[in-house]
Each structure stands twice: as structure tokens, then as C-alpha cells.
Amino acid sequence: MKIDGFALAATTNDLTREQDAREAADIVEFRIDKAENPLEQLEAYDGELPIIATNRNQWFGGKAKDTGRLDTLFAASRFDSVAYVDIELETARAKEWILEEFRDNDVGLIISHHDFDATPEKEILTAIIEQCAHYGDIAKVATYPQDLSDTLTLLATLHEATQSGIDAAGIAMGETGSHTRVIGHIYGSKLGYAPLLSDDAEYAPGQISLKKLAALVESTRINGTKLERIDAVDDDVAVPSELSLPN
Fold this sequence. Notes:
Strand content: 15-25%
Helix content: 25-40%
CATH topology: TIM Barrel
Radius of gyration: 18 Å
Number of domains: 1
Strand order of the largest sheet: 7-6-5-4-3-2-1-8
Number of strands: 10
CATH superfamily: Aldolase class I
Structural class: alpha/beta
Shape: globular
Largest sheet: 8 strands, parallel
Number of helices: 10
CATH class: Alpha Beta
């Protein structure tokens, strides 16, 4: 499966809830590290949406134990419903040989890098994206902005990378970076992530619930150079009766 354009991933640890995501999401990110009996869930899965399998340890913001983590992810990659696996850049560097084994299971590779403390300078972030792209099919970077200028750094770097032909996804975490989840697709991001509204598991800081993010993304779709206003957000936005929205 190749992602053309932008795809919104519903993040969950419970695949029985896939039906709740169909209306808004294009793909499901299954957080194996936060799931009960993840391989059994994949065995029983009969949903319509393809799956990104993710199994993070605590160093990368997850809960998986190091022992057996990649073995479980590899077992997940054997299921036909799994279209992508997410592997950290650090893991890809240290165990490059394992990447071909994943590819043999006919899955795409999302190579990701997370910085939970800061946003690297533009030159460094560019190099990180290029390294992720070297190992995988989609280069994903998530950084933590200290201020709005950091979000501009992320978006500018993402835009330049995608313009150069790299399939990339970029997210600025936390409240300061939350808006990048809405407009990242404008700058070329291939993927967005959102938890289902009632999900009680903790995911990345600054996330927006799935249906709300889907509506916001649709409201900022670009047709050529023209921003399209989509009625999907009208229910969430109160407009005084004496005012009208511009055409």
C-alpha cells in the first residue's frame, strides 16, 4: 500500500473499535505496546481500514519491554491487514538487517524520529528526515517546540523535504505544536495521527481527537492555491447571526 496524498490515522490500542474510526480515518495506527493480547486482536481483526503497527518502548514514548519487542512487531507484520510498521530511526540504524525481513512480509516501513525535549535546527532536522527516508518508505519526525518559531522550522523543513521527493510526515508535539496536526498536510505531510475521542490511553502530547481533527483537516484542504472552506466544521463553530462567513 502506498499513501497518495494525505492519510489520517486513528490511533488506538483496541482493534474492535475500528468501526468507530471508519467515517473519519483512512488507516488505523495499532499501538501494540498499549494493547492487551495484540496478536490475538490482529488474528480476529476483520475491519476495513489497513493498519500501521507500532510497538514502542519507554525510550520512544511507549510501554513495550525491550525483550521481544521487535519479535512481536515482526509477528504483527505477517498479517495481511498490516500495511505499515513503524520503526524508530535509532532501531533502523542499529539493526538495519531486520528491515529487509519486514519488507519480505510485504509491509511498508515508516521510519520515525521523536524528540520529546526540543526541535532541532533546520539543517539537523533535514538530515534526520533524509536518514529516515534512506531506511524507509515514509520518514516521520515528531519534535517538541519551545515556541512558535520551532513549529515554523518543522513545517518549513517538512515542506522542503516533500518538495524534494521524500514521502515525509511531520508533527510538532504539545499544545504549542498542536496546530501543526491540522495544517501539516498543506506542507506535504503524508500522515496525521489522532486518538478516538473516548480513548482512555495516553498518546503523544497535544493530540486532537479523531473526528475533530478530520473536520479541521478538511476545512484546510487546498485545491491548487485556493483554500477550500468545508462545511464539516460548521457544527463546531458558532457564527453570530449578524455576521456571515466570507465566500
